[in-house]
Amino acid sequence: MKRSSVFYWFTGVAIAAIAIGAAFYFDAAVRDFVAHHQNRALLHLMHNVSRLGDWPEHFALGLVLTGIAWRCGNKKWTRVFLSMLIALALAGLVGRGIKIATARARPSVKMEEVLYWSRFSTKYHSFPSGHVAASVAFFGVLFLGSWRIGLACIPIPILIGLSRMYIGAHYLSDVVCAAILGILCALLVAHFLLRQIANRQSRIEN
């Protein structure tokens, strides 16, 4: 492994560790701030954002985009969109496993309600946010495939994360850890599925 790669990974791990620590530290403060600044119109908006930002909507969008790219014969974008779907599925599966293992109650739910439901049900489980993990993984691959388009889409997972906290479904740490999980899934999928695109582009440029 190149020295520069080690440096980037070390820096990334350090930033992630600091972000996770800070998120858990400010969990209560953010929860209380949101609880004392509720607005009916904004709450309605955030509920809609949260509903539209779930994984089925992302998956449907990915399928449509993959179909269009395949129909147009564009191999690069067919691979990118397919990779987005795979990253989405991976983040969802890993996130669900973590939810079952941790069984952390949502901010608006009592722990007894979590224990009442089946161990394999995540209806009242909070950690991590499945919405955020899926969205970050989905658009993270897009960013790695085309940073200009991906950069324009970054506000989407950010808004989804804010909506999940605003409606009382998640803590700040749920959202931050889910974002890190989504980034890791995007990097993993892109490493194996998008590397050919990057190598081909570098050969063309050279």
Verbal overview:
- The structure is a single chain.
- The protein has 206 residues and is an all-alpha fold.
- 80% of the residues lie in helices and 0% in strands.
- It has one domain: Vanadium-containing Chloroperoxidase, domain 2 (Orthogonal Bundle).
- The protein is built from 11 helices and no strands.
- α3 crosses α9, α5 runs antiparallel to α7 and α7 packs antiparallel against α8.
- The longest helix is centred in the middle third of the chain and has 28 residues.
Keywords:
single chain; 206 residues; 80% helix
Give me the secondary-structure topology.
Layout: H1 3-25, H2 27-35, H3 40-52, H4 55-71, H5 75-102, H6 111-116, H7 130-145, H8 147-153, H9 155-166, H10 172-193, H11 195-205
Helix pairs in contact: 1-10, 3-9, 4-5, 5-7, 5-10, 7-8, 7-9, 7-10
